[in-house]
Amino acid sequence: MTTPQFLVFAILATTMGLFLWGRLRHDIVALIALLACVMAGLVPAAEAFAGFGHPAVITVACVLVLSQGLQNTGAVDWLARAALPREAGRLVSMSALMGLGAVLSGFMNNVGAMALLMPVAVQLSGRLNLTAGQVLMPLAFGTILGGMTTLIGTPPNLIVSGFRAEAGLGHFAMFDFAPVGVAVAVAGVAFVALVGWRLVPARKASGTDGFETGSYLTEVRVPEDSKAVGMTLRSFEREIEDSESQIVGLVRNEVRMTAPHGGRRIRADDILVLEADVETLAKALSVFGIKLEEQQSSSDSDDENTATAAKQASEDEDIAKRDEDIVLRELAVLPGSSIVGRTARDMHLRTRYGLNLLAVSRAGHPPKARLRTLALKSGDLLLMQGPAEVMAEFINETGCVPLGERELRIPDKRMALLAGAIMLGAVGIATLGLLPAAAAFMLGVIASMLLRTVPPRQVYTAIDWPVIVLLAALIPVASAMQVTGAADVLARFLVDIIAQGNAIAALAVVLVTTMFLSDVMNNAATAAVMCPIAIGIAIALGVNPDSFLMAVAIGASCAFLTPIGHQNNTLILGPGGFGFSDYWKLGLPLEMLVVAVSMPLLLIVWPL
Length: 608
Fold this sequence. Notes:
The chain is 58% helix and 8% strand. By secondary structure, it is an alpha+beta fold. Strand 2 and strand 3 (255-258) form a beta hairpin. Strands 1, 2, 3, 4, 5, 6, 7, 8 and 9 form a nine-stranded antiparallel sheet that branches. The radius of gyration is 27 Å and the shape is elongated.
């Protein structure tokens, strides 16, 4: 063993030790490894940060942004409502939820898919009389399984494709992963939905919501083309009961009816007064494609001077041009706030600030006035919508306090269709080979910014920068393993000592080793470490390297034994009430199933 090879192994062993130690963030560990390689002369200083321009890194960043667009517009909310049965049993419900998570994960970041479907899983657990964790863990595993089905489903697939190109074999195509990945995902989802969920420990959750703010009171107008027209209020409530919303009033021809009779039929232009939790409000709106009353028109019925209103509206238009990033914020009205006792009409929220008061939450007696004429009290919680900069000015001027940030979405069908079309367009361009994957998805990001499905301000916050830094830092380290011959040394050890020169045994060793490493360290890091080793083994045996690269892709995507192997496992740790040792009870048989299904398929689809 040469000195450079010894140094690479020492740095790699130290890096894995730091990953397992867990005291330092993964991206920091990766940067330490990169700088160690630079100082040891294993990576040229001029190429130290070349990984940030690697196509795999660019593609991962772009997919994260496009995923944010699907979240922002409520596209996944529409899909979930259409795809998930409302009154099915455990088998059908669990299969549908995991299947939806797997499909979404194939075309968007699987962490984003998991985050979007978590509230759905928690609600479903109550209906199925299960603990939250008994639904959350199957969903987490389903989204992980779905990520292995396409090139963009999970970062390890992109990394594997990048190493294949560097080996002179070209990139994998968008659906090259599907023949094995889809079979493994289907088998895994079927196993968990049938019997696997029973292996999940029934733990008491530590809380599935960040904080409780009570129910908001809001107004929605029924458009003429809504299917709600002609329905009774009782039927309407039955349709939205899953969103935990209820009708507490009806406004018709400017006359408000409190607690209207359930047999009264809804007419076009009726205003329904809904009481709903802010996080389930989006579902109530999306069922019938209705919009919040205060969101529909930029005009206000304030009794102020027309010329002044026109002048102010022009100023608001200038504000909108300067800052088009519309945000939703929850604000608490403090006792000393200047808006106590005032109404939205008094404050000219629209014409003066360009803000909409969408809903109000008030402890005790629910307000009986219309939103725009409701006198605000200290302790009220306001759901406000408007440009980010204007919102900040309003908060500073009035003395309100913004609550801790959480995901708030008001669905917009047109924008949801745009976001979905952009994602499908980028996938189609990459699949047809019209542009490389990185360029295709960057085109999608530009379209998202221009069409406002992802505001430019949000583009950089949508990217998971620790993951990007991790990938960019480890790519040069993995290259150093190849350049110094360290990958070949390790490959020969695995082939000669472990697999005894048998190609099929070597393939199984690569798959199982990758799965084990993925359980104890980041899956992207595992793929970056194992790819050069897999290529080295294939070369040493004189067999098809694609079989081994696919084994790495499958193994890196199957982290089911620990909460640290994949971010989706970490996401459910608190809400599911799980401990570190709870994952292997379902994870171990699932990983055994993955090996049993994938090994013969790898040999058939990617023959040695």
